[in-house]
Amino acid sequence: MFVENLKETLNLGKKLSHKLNPQSIILLKGPIGAGKTSFVQGIAKGLSISEDITSPTFALSHHYNSGKIPLIHLDLYRLGNVSSAKEVFFSEEEEAIQRQAILVIEWPELIEPVIDNFWKIEISYAKDYGRNYEIRDPKNLLTFS
Question: N or C, fewer C-beta in 10 Å, the chain?
Fold first, then answer.
């Protein structure tokens, strides 16, 4: 699906939020600057989260509690090995289960093999401008085409 600008990115995230349930896991892939955090801002907007959504690259995770469903936003970009990534993921997954939260993971490549039942969103730069989104539900069906 082609997305032209930030407004459409936010709207797509908001649209996806209505399909998510507590304990949903979203793997969010894309190059630096593709709009992963902007997409999470759209999800948060759809969940009525009032806090500012920022990239958790340096903190590793941010927790948001003000919405209809809590949101945990995890970024594994800085983690260079599988064992560190798994440790952080399993800790945040446990927290998401306890709090009935949605867990969004940017840069999930190191842990994807150990996760079952997740949404997978891949963002790529379009040829001239904008972004292409490929969104697959937990049954690996292409959605939002």
Answer: C
For strands 142-143 and 131-136, give the pairing: antiparallel
| Domain, as residue range, for 114 | 2-143
pTM, whole model, 2 decimals? 0.93
CATH code of 48's domain:
3.40.50.300
Residues 16/135, Cβ–Cβ less than 8 Å: yes
Give the start-end residues of each E strand in the chain. Answer: 2-3, 25-29, 61-64, 71-75, 102-106, 119-125, 131-136, 142-143
For 82-108, how does the pLDDT look when each residue is reduced to its tens digit (9 = 90+)? 999 999 999 999 999 999 999 999 999
β pairing state of 25-29 and 102-106? parallel
Backbone φ, ψ for residue 31 (5° rounding): -70, 165
Helices (H), the chain: 6-17, 36-46, 82-99
